[in-house]
Amino acid sequence: MSDQPDVTVDTAKLQRFGEALLTALGVPAADAALTLETLIEADLRGVESHGVAHLVDFYVRRIQQGHVNPRPTMTIDERAPATATLDADRGLGFIAAHRAMDLAIRKAEACGAAFVAVRNSTHYGAGFHYALKAACAGMVGLSVTTGGNIVVPPGGRKRTYGANVISVAAPTRRSFCFVLDGSTSAVAGGKLEIARRRGLAIPEGWALDEFGHATTDPHSFLRGGGLLPLGGAPHLGAYKGFGLAIFADVLSGVLSGMGASLSLPGNGAAAHCLAALRVDAFLPFDQYLVGMEAMIDGLKAAERQQGVSEILIPGELEARLEQERRARGAVPLHAAIIAGYRAAAAELGVPFDLT
Amino acid sequence: MSDQPDVTVDTAKLQRFGEALLTALGVPAADAALTLETLIEADLRGVESHGVAHLVDFYVRRIQQGHVNPRPTMTIDERAPATATLDADRGLGFIAAHRAMDLAIRKAEACGAAFVAVRNSTHYGAGFHYALKAACAGMVGLSVTTGGNIVVPPGGRKRTYGANVISVAAPTRRSFCFVLDGSTSAVAGGKLEIARRRGLAIPEGWALDEFGHATTDPHSFLRGGGLLPLGGAPHLGAYKGFGLAIFADVLSGVLSGMGASLSLPGNGAAAHCLAALRVDAFLPFDQYLVGMEAMIDGLKAAERQQGVSEILIPGELEARLEQERRARGAVPLHAAIIAGYRAAAAELGVPFDLT
Questions:
Q1: Going by fewer Cβ within 10 Å, which terminus of chain A is more open, N or C?
Q2: Residue B123 appears among annotated catalytic residues
Q3: Domain(s) of CATH 3.30.1370.60: residues in chain B
Q4: Given A160, A235, A278, which is nearest B302 (Cβ)?
Q5: Widest CA span in chain B
Q6: Are A298 and B263 a contacting pair at CB < 8 A?
C-alpha cells in the first residue's frame, strides 16, 4: 500500500462525530463523550497507535458483534480500605478504567495508596490517560492492562501471551508530567499496523514471523507472527520484559479474577489494574516537587550524543505536541481512517462532516 | 585476569564467618545474621552478582569508611494507613528493607495494600528477597530501589542516572514463586564485574565506553563508560527502560524524600520502596492460585524454539537452584572472593575456616 498524506481533522468535529457513532449503537451520551475525549487525547499527544484510528474497527465493530456491551452494569466489590475490584460487564474499557481510577484516587485520599483491579473489561486505549488522571490529582498513578496475545515468550516461537502495558505518571513543576506508557513487548502491536498502513519495513528485534524466525516484514507478523518481549533477546533482557508482562498480568488479570492475558477470549476482552499513591501520604508535596525537579534537571544536564539537542523526559514530547495540537484544535489522520469513518457513518445513518 | 575454578563453600560456615566480620565492626548480632542470610540466599539462587561476593568490598569496607552506619537508629513516619516512610539512618540496606517490607505486610493486612518508602538507606543486595517475603505471606510483593549512577539516558553519552531495580514476586501453587528481579538497565552492573573477573567480553547492547561509543569490553565500562537502559536503542524500547528507571526513582528516591538516584552521594547510598498487595483483598486466595496456574500452564504449553526444552517462568530456575544448593549446603565462589575474605579476616582478627 502506497503512503498518502495525512488529513487534518478538527477535534471538536471528531468528538461530535465519534459520539454520534457510539450513541447510534446504544452507548449512553456521557460514556460516548468520555470515550471520544480519551481517544482524541491520545491523538493530541501523538499516540496514533491508540487513538481514534481504532474508533471503528475496535469499538464500533465490537459493539456490533456483541463483544462490547454498550450499556453495561458495572459493579464494585470493596474487600479492604485500599483495594477493590470492579466488574465492567464487558463495557467500554475507557469507562471502566476512568471509574476504577476515580475510585483508586478516592481510596488513596483516605488510605494514602490504593489499587482497583478491573475484570470483564475491554480494550481501554492507551494506559497513560488513567495514570495522568492520578497525577493531575497530586498522586503517582499506575495503570496496567492485559493486551492481545501476540507476544512470544523467551524460548518460544509463537505468539502466546499478552502485549500487556505498564503506564505510570507523576506530577512535576514543569509543563509536563512524567509519563511512562509502554507495552512490555519491544513495541506495541499498533506500531506494526502503522508500518503496514504506511508500507514500511520494521526494525529487527521487534517481531518473529509465523515460523518463529526474526523478521522485518510487518505483514509476516500479521500473518501470525509474534512480538518479542521488551529487551528482545534473552542476553539483552528479554526475561525482564517477560517478567514485567507477567507482573501486569498478575495485577490485572489474576487479581481481578478474570484470568491472565493468555486465558482471555480475544476480541478486546481485557483486565486492568489502576493504582494511585497520594504524594503527601509520604512527604510534603512541595518537597516532592523539589525532588522531581532535581531529577529532571540532572537528566537534562547529561552529556549528549552528537546531534541530540536535548535529553527528553518520558512524557515531555507528548505534552509539547498536545499543547500545539490543542492550540490548533486539530489532529492528523491517515486517509484510510477517514475512509473507514465515511463507510461507518453511511452504515449507521450518522452525518459525515469531518472533511 | 585468567579464570580459575570456583571454590565450593559451606553455607553454615559462610554465615558464621560473615556474621563475625560484621559484628567485629559493631553490627548487632541479629542484623549481621539477617544480612548474611539475605546475601547467602542470593548465592543459593544463583544471583552471584548480588550475593556474598560483595561482603567485603560493599559492606565491610563501607562500614569502615563511615558510609554505612553499623548501629543505626531507624525511624518510621506513618502519615496514612497504607503508607509510611522509614529513615534508615545510613544502616545496612538489608535491615532497612526487611523492616520496611514487614511494615508494608502489616499495613496490607489491615488495608489490603501498602507502600513503605525508605530514605537514608544503603545497598540492599538483590531486590527479590523483599518481594519474596511478601509472596511467602500470601501477597504480591514489590520492591524498587535506586542503584549506582551508571546508566546513560537515551540520547546521552555518559553515565548519569541509577541502575534502579524493580523486583516483583507472587505466590503460586508450584514449588516456585513468580519472581521478576531486574535492573532497569539492559543488565546490572554486577554482570560486567563478573565478565571482568572471568576475563570475558560483553555482548553489544549492554554498555557504552567512556567516550559514549558502543563497547564489548567490560574494562572500558569500568573506566567510566555507562550501561544502556533496558531495550538498548531508542527504536527497541530504550525509552521504556528509561521510564521504568524513573518510576523506580519516583517511588524510592523522590517519595522517600531522599532524592532520585542521580542526586545520591554514591558509596552505596540508596532509597527503596517496598509494597505489598494482599491477594484476598481482591479475590479468594484459591481463586487467585487457579488463575496463576492457568497462566503458568499456558506459558509452559507455548511452542518452543528448537533446542529449548522448557519455557521457564521468571523465578523458576532460581528456585530449582536454591533447592539443590540448600540440599548440598554449599555455594560456589570465585577464588578472588575467597582471597578477599582471607585478607579481611586477618585484618579484623576473625578466624578464617572457609576452605
A1: N
A2: yes
A3: 72-186+231-301
A4: A160
A5: 57
A6: yes
Catalytic machinery residues of A: 123
Return residue ranges of chain A for CATH 3.30.1370.60.
72-185+237-301
Chain A residues closer than 8 Å to B157 by CB: 303-305
Amino acid making up residue A298 = G
Q: CB-based contact (8 Å) between A317 and chain B?
A: no
Residue type, A296: I
Task: Sort out which chain A residues have CB atoms less than 8 A from B85's CB and list them.
Answer: 282-283
Q: The whole model's pTM is what?
A: 0.97
| A138 interfacial to chain B (CB closer than 8 Å) | no
* pLDDT of res. A209: 95
Question: Does domain B72-186+231-301 sit in CATH 3.20.20.210?
Answer: no
pLDDT above 80: residue A45: yes
Q: What is the mean pLDDT of residues B60-84?
A: 98
Q: How far is the C-alpha of A146 from the C-alpha of A249, rounded, in Å?
A: 6
Q: Where in chain B is the domain with CATH 1.10.1530.10?
A: 1-71+329-355
- Cβ contacts of A304 on chain B, cutoff 8 Å: 155-157
CA–CA distance, A58 with A48 (Å, rounded to integer): 14
pLDDT of residue B4: 75
What interhelical angle do B316-328 and B29-44 show, nearest 10? 110
Chain position carrying cell 514476586: B169
> Topology of domain A72-185+237-301, per CATH?
Ribosomal Protein S8; Chain: A, domain 1 (3.30.1370)
Spatial distance between the Cα atoms of B49 and B41, rounded to a whole number of angstroms: 12
**ipTM score of the complex?**
0.97
Judge: domain B1-71+329-355, CATH 1.10.1530.10: yes
Residues 6 or more apart in contact with residue A316 via CB below 8 angstroms: A174, A176
Beta strands in chain A (DSSP E): 7-10, 75-80, 83-87, 113-122, 139-145, 149-151, 161-162, 165-170, 178-183, 207-208, 214-215, 226-227, 269-278, 330-333
Grid coordinates 553455607 are at which residue?
A: B11
- B310/A243 CB distance under 8 A: no
- Residue extent(s) of CATH 3.30.60.50 domains in chain A: 187-227
Q: Say which CATH architecture domain A187-227 belongs to.
A: 2-Layer Sandwich (3.30)
Q: Residue A3 — very low, low, confident or very high, per pLDDT cuts 50/70/90?
A: low
pLDDT reported for residue A46: 95
**A280/B83 Cα distance (integer angstroms):** 10
